[in-house]
Amino acid sequence: QVQLVESGGGLVQAGGSLRLSCAASGGSFSGYTMGWFRQAPGKEREFVASTWLRSGSTTYAESVKGRFTISGDNAKKTVYLQMSSLKAEDTAVYYCAAAALGSGYNDWGQGTQVTVSS
After folding, report:
1. pLDDT of the residue at 46
2. What is the DSSP string of the chain?
3. How many CB atoms lie within 10 A of CB 57?
4. CA distance 98 to 105
5. What is the average per-residue pLDDT within 43-66?
6. The predicted structure's pLDDT at residue 28
7. What is the percentage of the chain residues whose pLDDT exceeds 90?
8. pLDDT score for 26
């Protein structure tokens, strides 16, 4: 089991940038797929981006492609989500999640609020 703690959320103007961090403890971090998800008020949680830490491969939701970048630092056991060109519709609570090889996202952080003002 991996414990996850997100940070870096806040209030930003449309067009601005934020970098979210997700610090992990426990587990063999480098073998995991790490994902970022978000949930806006009144909406279901949705996938944002993921990275398989062993290879560095990444996947993005269409809505954030070209604007968000996910990356991992195995030495620091931290995953980042660099968000640029933010839009009001990016406003949500952002969650970090971890999936062991062959498993789903079973470990989740507590979330960090991102608010984009238009």
Report:
1. 98
2. --EEEEE--EEEETT--EEEEEEEESS-GGG-EEEEEEE-TTS--EEEEEEETTTTEEEE-TTTTTTEEEEEETTTTEEEEEE-S--GGG-EEEEEEEE-TTS-EEEE---EEEEEE-
3. 10
4. 5
5. 96
6. 77
7. 85
8. 83
